[in-house]
Design brief:
By secondary structure, the chain is an alpha/beta fold. It has one domain: Nucleoside phosphorylase domain (Rossmann fold, 3-Layer(aba) Sandwich). 31% of the residues lie in helices and 23% in strands. The protein is built from eight helices and nine strands. The protein has a five-stranded mixed beta barrel with strand order 5-8-7-6-9. α1 packs across α4. Bound molecules: hypoxanthine. The site of hypoxanthine has 14 residues, from β5, β8 and β9.
Length: 278
């Protein structure tokens, strides 16, 4: 990463040449097992990350690794289907180029979705939770090594309050209950211990997961407005009989993806008009 304006510009140019320019209402990063959102899309074009210069290779099962442009609620959206995680690469900035490219292609809003564990006994698998704030518990930061003052990104309202209000409105309109919570980022790939989850709860975390936080920081760095939704796939370790597994994460995310897609459809329908392409 570091000082990679050139890499972002190269990726954005290649995507422009592949027909991905023209502005979008929103970009959406999909979490593990949440591919149903793409099925709800009227697809215009797609490209494998492997064919975009400087995009990461995404190798986790449950992730495809492709960028998809299409329409949701009649609005142009860009979907990052698959993300590169810190635990794959040891690089907290693994999503630097894709997120910079999204900003350059004219998507002003980034919706981050993920599968997460719940530390709240009353928030059960299948719940949709709007991310209100985060805790970068891994201690890592994707902006380490950036050299200019833009690196001092304010994170006070990182999860845009107006977008959270749109999410609540969208959820209400489709009769989908939505909660709000604080997401704590553990590096993974091992799941947490029950003692770590007790700590997470004591520190104010409602959700735990292995993604999203570095992307929210990078997105704010690139000037994107950020929203986030967690799909609760399991009770976090030691909460009730919670003993998370990747198989369970994928299965519950798969079952819940359709509801997430409906929520995102209603959310995108409420975003301001910004796209410029026909
Ligand atoms: N912990 C961390 N990451 C996760 C979990 C969890 O319980 N569930 C889904 N992703």
């Amino acid at each position: 990463m570091k000082a990679s304006i050139g890499r972002v510009a190269t990726a954005a140019q290649a995507l422009g040449e592949a027909g991905f320019g023209g502005g979008y209402a929103c970009a959406i990063a999909l979490g593990t097992g949440l591919g149903a959102v793409v099925e709800a899309l009227e697809i215009e074009r797609m490209i494998a990350y492997a064919n975009v210069p400087h995009f990461p290779a995404s190798g986790v099962s449950g992730h495809k690794g492709r960028l998809v442009a299409g329409r949701l609620a009649g609005r142009r959206v860009l979907i990052l289907e698959g993300r590169s995680h810190y635990y794959e690469t040891g690089d907290a900035a693994a999503m630097h180029v894709p997120l910079g490219a999204i900003a350059a292609l004219g998507a002003p809003v980034l919706m981050l979705t993920n599968a997460a564990g719940s530390t709240r006994p009353e928030t059960r698998p299948g719940a949709l939770v709007a991310i209100a704030d985060h805790i970068a518990f891994s201690g890592l930061n994707p902006l380490i090594g950036e050299t200019d003052d833009r690196r001092f990104v304010p994170m006070t309202n990182a999860y845009d309050p107006a977008l959270r209000a749109l999410l609540r409105d969208a959820a209400g309109a489709i009769g989908e209950p939505i909660e709000e919570g604080v997401y704590m980022w553990f590096s993974g790939p091992s799941f947490e211990t029950p003692a770590e989850i007790r700590m997470a709860r004591a520190l104010g975390a409602d959700l735990v997961g292995m993604s999203t936080v570095p992307e929210a920081i990078l997105a704010r760095f690139f000037g994107l407005r950020v929203a986030g939704v967690s799909v609760v796939t399991n009770m976090a370790a030691g909460i009730g009989d919670g003993s998370p597994s990747h198989a369970e994460t994928k299965a519950v995310a798969g079952e819940t993806g359709g509801r997430l897609a409906r929520l995102l459809d209603a959310f995108v329908a409420r975003l301001p008009e910004t796209e410029t392409a026909p």
